[in-house]
Structures are given as C-alpha cells and as structure tokens.
Amino acid sequence: MKCKVNIRCITAGRDKLLRMVQYFSRLCSTVLHRLNYSQSTIESFKSLQRQFGRVRMILRIGSFLENLITAVRTLGDKDPVDPILRFLSIGSQLGYVCYLTLDTIMVFHIMGVYNLTSAKQLASTANRSWAAALLCSIISSSYILLASPRQVGDSRAVHGETTKYVLDVAHLPWKLRMLRIVLKGALDCSDPTGYRPVRLDDADF
C-alpha cells in the first residue's frame, strides 16, 4: 500500500508539472499568433504542447483501475450516505473510468502501434465522458454547499474521507474546498481542447 501511495504521489506530481508546461506552451503559441510572429516560431510551441500532452497520456495508462475500484467500493458501501451524493460519486468515477480507458486506447494510436480508423470518434467520446465526470463533481460539490449540516457530515465518506462527524455547513475551510472544486470543474469544462460545454478559445485564458 505504501508503495502504491508513493507511486501515485510521484505520478500525480509529474502530471501537474507536465500540465503546467503544456498549457504554458499553448498560451505562448496563442500570444505569438496574436502578435503575428513567424509560423515556425508558433509551431515550435505547438509541437512542445503536443509532445507533453502525449507524455501525460502515457503516464495515465492503467489509472482507470483506481477509479473503477473507487466506484465499486462506493456502490457497496453500507454506511448511511445521501443517495444523491452516492449516485453523483459513482457517476463521476464511472465517467473517469470511461475517459481514462479510451485515453489508454488512444495512446497506442498516437504512438503508431495500431492505427485506429475511429480515433476521432473515440477522442470525442472520451471528452464527453470527461465532461460528464466533471459535471457530476460540480453538482455534488454544489449540493454539499447547499446541504444541511447532517448531509455534509455524511457526504465526507463520498469524497474519500473516513471521518464522519457532523460538520457545520458554515465551516469556512470545508466550504472553500467545495467551492474550489466547483470553480475548477467549471474552468476545466471551458478547456478549448475538450468537449467545451462553454465555448471559449485559447485567447480567453
């Protein structure tokens, strides 16, 4: 278990660093395009963005198993949890399972191991699954913010915490955490490279 946690921390940390570089490269390419720089200069940053995106996909291989296990455990949890929160938690985990599974399949196509004729359809389905998982997370966090103290106390189990005491809904750190999840999910849904329920382009970021 300790080994698993260490590997998880290392992978998550690297993914955050790679994501920062990837998005910074995308920002640079957009800014340079608006400033009318040469196409070769812009393409160098776009190439950097694509390469780091591929590295992140490789790091995510097999990570769908963790979400699948979490979904099964939540489904079989006998503790008294709000049924709405249980449903949203399972929906979010299954959305990530579908997204990460298709993401893993796409790695073989991108690396040239196997040519998928339906690559665009798979990518679109993956993005839709990712957006569905984010939507469940946003609704769940919003529900907790508006819930009664008892519901908030019970909902801690759904969000991966073992402590289940009754939490005052006015408790500021907990409310800020839920608000951060809502805002992060809303920003992720506006990602120009994803499904984009909110239509924005790179210049808006």
Write the layout of secondary structure elements.
Elements lengths: L1 H33 L4 H21 L4 H13 L6 H28 L8 H28 L2 H7 L16 H18 L16
Question: Would you mind describing this structure in some detail?
Answer:
The protein has 205 residues and is mainly α. The chain has helices at residues 2-34, 39-59, 64-76, 83-110, 119-146, 149-155, 172-189. Helix 5 runs antiparallel to helix 7. The longest helix has 33 residues, at 2-34. The radius of gyration is 19 Å and the shape is globular.
What's a concise summary of this model?
The protein is an all-alpha fold and 205 residues long. 72% of the residues lie in helices and 0% in strands. It is globular, with a radius of gyration of 19 Å.
Termini separation: 39 Å
Task: Output mean pLDDT.
Answer: 75
Number of helices, counting only DSSP H or I runs of 4 residues or more = 7
Shape: globular
| Rg over alpha carbons | 19 Å
Q: Proportion of β residues?
A: under 5%
What's the number of extended β-strand segments? 0
List low-confidence stretches.
Answer: 150-154, 156-170, 195-200
How is the main sheet built?
none
Proportion of residues in helical segments: over 70%
SSE sequence, one letter per element: HHHHHHH
Class by alpha and beta content: mainly alpha
